[in-house]
Description:
Strands 3, 4, 5, 6, 9, 10 and 11 form a seven-stranded mixed β-sheet that branches. The chain has a two-stranded antiparallel ribbon with strand order 1-2. It is rod-shaped. By secondary structure, it is of the alpha/beta class. The longest helix is centred in the N-terminal third of the chain and has 29 residues, at 59-87. The protein has helices spanning 3-15, 18-25, 29-43, 59-87, 99-102, 105-116, 129-137, 202-213, 227-235, 245-251, 279-293; strands spanning 48-51, 54-57, 91-97, 120-126, 143-148, 157-171, 193-197, 219-225, 241-244, 254-257, 264-272. It is built from eleven helices and eleven strands.
Amino acid sequence: MQLQQLRYFTAIAEVRHFTRAAEALHVAQPSLSQQIRSLERELGAALFHRARGNITLTDAGEALLPLARRILADAETAHREVQEVAQLRRGRVRLGAPPSLCASLVPDVLRAYHARFPGIELLIDEGGSQDLVRTLASGGLDLALIITPLGVGAPALTTTELLHEELVVVTSPSVPPPSRRKRIGVEELRGQPMVMFRRGYDLREMTIGACRTAGFEPSFTVEGGEMDAVLGFVRAGLGLAVVPGMVAARSGLRVTPFEGERMRRTVAVAHRTDAPPPRAARELRAVLMEQVLR
């Protein structure tokens, strides 16, 4: 008994006509009839009463129909499950992340994921949250690590919070500390030389917004850099910068925390609401959650 024969049988049973069933299946009618006769010989019973213009099921056909439908449904389920597994042996995942996370969280996540699914190619798009949101919405990414909340008019994305991260001030050990105290207030940044990220970075918008809330405009000595460049300019003594704590801990720079919880950001993993990510991307999201909860 072959799956193809069962497909032919159920198609005829549904339309009660050999020719129309053959047309629906895109096969020649003689070939379909031959397969049904072969099935009947194997089962040892006629499945249809054949009368011109009037095809009906025999008792044997009535008994086989629900079983055939179940077998075909199970075969389709098995096919989908095997394909899902096969996709994790090869394929790719496109992940977007801000440079600050590419320098801290992402390497550990990718190492854990690659150990589990070595056949999956990992493509990383490094950029600011605003840029990543646009790329994700246009279908250029499967997942993105972004900073929430999203701004007004942002595309429809499904987000899951991963962590809350403290922002800190970093300065070169070769220059005086930015504050006489162990912690610094935002208002103490007034008049201090700052190294600022390029437009599109959430860190830029958060820092400028905090300064304006405190009643002043920040002073930039260098503006427009990526994360590595900003840290390099700070290391050279060109000014201070506001960066995530995970990045600061690995930078070798002097770290000064802010007072209270005024400077924190929320990191979330996002995908398009109208297009659920493929299984390989869902597995990457699961690894992300595991790494954060460790």
